[in-house]
Amino acid sequence: MTRLEKFPYFISYFLGYRKSNHNKKPIPQWRVYVWSFLAAWIGIALLEIIFTYSESFQNHDTPMIVASFGATAVLVYGVIESPLAQPRNVIGGHTIGSIVGVIIAQLFLNIQHNWISESQKTAVTWVGGATAMALALNLMQLTKTVHPPAGASALIAVVTPNIVEMAWFYIAVVVVSAIVQVTIACLMNNVERRYPQYWWTPHAPIKIDPLTVHTLMPSSDEKVPEEVVSDNLTEAEEGRLQNRSVSSQVSTCTSVGVVEHALLVLRKHVDESDTPFALISPGLPIVATHGLLSPSEYETLELLLQKLNAKAP
């Protein structure tokens, strides 16, 4: 059970959770455009209202909006399935970008107040801006929070004079902006779409290299204990089966019993990991998580399998 399942469904629904029997209905493209427009308008307008009329922000000469959040709006309202638009990347990326930008601004610009010439300050500014953006990128890569607009948040903190004067308060402005954008995205994008796809890590599919599939379904003349097959499956899922030598002589005759056994191991593994799945293969019955397929969907897949079986050599 995921953590979102513990919330009432009307709450978890707007946090991106869907039940296994949820029937996703395609919507016309024009409605996608309408929802994107409305969400982006509300998200940007709300930030402008907060920073324009809030006395606590105006006391620090906060700009109406940090420009990098225009780019964030494109991602979280228009390309909502992208990994770059998920909450971890949006909030984490902007937080890292703002912190790095402020630190570089303090080190490069605020320590020295008596510049020899304006050209010297200009040179230090562009060097600091490039340093902040590049360093923020590396930290986002290390933390898996890459969010392109966050690079602009780091850059703005160094090259925009009034932002440099805000110093550490700029971090609060950026974090609040990121949280507001994600909140509006959750409310608006879940009316007819789904956002986020995940909060922390994506649901990675089971990865099985075709060259190593024989480790899951050994040839009929090999007897492999269930524990070995299960261990091999786990290794394949985690992507650790790399550069393993494959015998040039792989048996082309695999018994149905071994195949069925491998399917049972696969199903058991997926059931224990609480991951919805459907397995469809010619000559074999449809195997799916309970409640995942509706009766009409099941019948459609049965017809498709019949056609595949009819055309099989």
From TrEMBL:
Residues in HPP transmembrane region domain copies: 27-196
Transmembrane spans: 32-51, 63-80, 92-111, 167-188
Keywords: Membrane, Transmembrane, Transmembrane helix
Highest taxon of the lineage: Eukaryota
Protein name according to UniProt: HPP transmembrane region domain-containing protein
Source organism of the structure: Thamnidium elegans
